[in-house]
Amino acid sequence: MTGTAWAKHPLLMQRRREFLGAPMHALSMGETIGLAEESMQTRTPLLHTVVNVAKLVTMKNNAELREDVASADVINVDGTGVLWGARLLGVAIDERVAGVDVMTEMFALCASKGYRPFLLGAEQHVLDDMAAELARRYPDMVIAGLQNGYFAAEQEADVIAAINASGADCLFVALPTPRKERFLKRYRSELLPSFVMGVGGSFDVFAGKVVRAPVLIQRLGLEWLFRVVQEPGRLWRRYYETNTAYAALLWQAYWARRSAS
Question: Peptide bond before 23: cis, by omega within 30 degrees of 0?
């Protein structure tokens, strides 16, 4: 099984779903980590991504991003809004599997099984804080390498070469959407780490730069509001426009489904 042959994996075939035109997999956290470990044990390349409300809205008007997401081998549902919206339209998804939680579970797996992660993206001071936090939690973990996200397009070949020379078993890419998805789509065939995952702003959370919403607020689907309260000047318009667009998409899809039934 190599590359896109993951599409024939029995679990992924059984759990593949589509919501608002976007593919995704109805997987639990345990199943997701199991697939990641399978990829590293067998040295079979696996590209992981997530879909949340903001990404679903952007994908509607960005064919390139839609193609990049669809090309991933495992697509988790990250976001309570996606989970609730899918259920509203009759798409069977049992739980949210947030990207930051997958990343955290993967670090624990690496520490316990001796896998070596490479961390790519974010600001240098965030990477330094990541390394310090990982050393605190997992003293025996070996980090294959670190590279901040401030590199130019003409430096990408050198970044890929450094990742491949590091001997990393897995790669976590903390670049913004859609740069992250474009980067991984462009270089997935060249990357040697078996499990590759785009993690967006998860380094900021793990390193303590950004405070994550309490679990209760996450379960209520208000994690976005918690973020707005932290940075209202920067985030309020973005979340207002995204959530409004998502509500409109859901409304249209819901009534189209009602009319067809």
Answer: no
- Where residue 1 falls among pLDDT bands split at 50, 70, 90? very low
Would you tell me how many other CB atoms lie within 10 Å of the CB of residue 215? 9
For residues 168 and 145, give the distance between their C-alpha atoms in angstroms, rounded to a whole number: 8
Stated length of the chain:
261
Read off the tokens for 261: 């039934």
Q: Judge contact between 163 and 120, C-beta under 8 A.
A: yes
| Residue carrying the six token digits 């997987």 | 27
Strands 46-51 and 74-77: parallel
One-letter amino acid identity for 208? G
Tokens 């997935």 -> residue? 188
**CA angle in degrees (0–180, nearest 5) for 117-192-120:** 45
Contact (CB, 8 A) for 159 and 151? yes
Task: Identify whether the C-beta of residue 59 lies closer than 8 Å to the C-beta of residue 67.
Answer: no
Tens-digit pLDDT profile for residues 100-113: 999 999 999 999 99
Q: Is the pLDDT of residue 2 over 60?
A: no
pLDDT band at residue 148 using 50, 70 and 90 as cut-offs: very high
Distances (CA, A) of 24 to 18, 73, 256: 6, 10, 21
Contacts of 57 (CB under 8 A, 6+ apart): 242, 245, 246, 249
Helix, strand, or coil here: 171?
strand
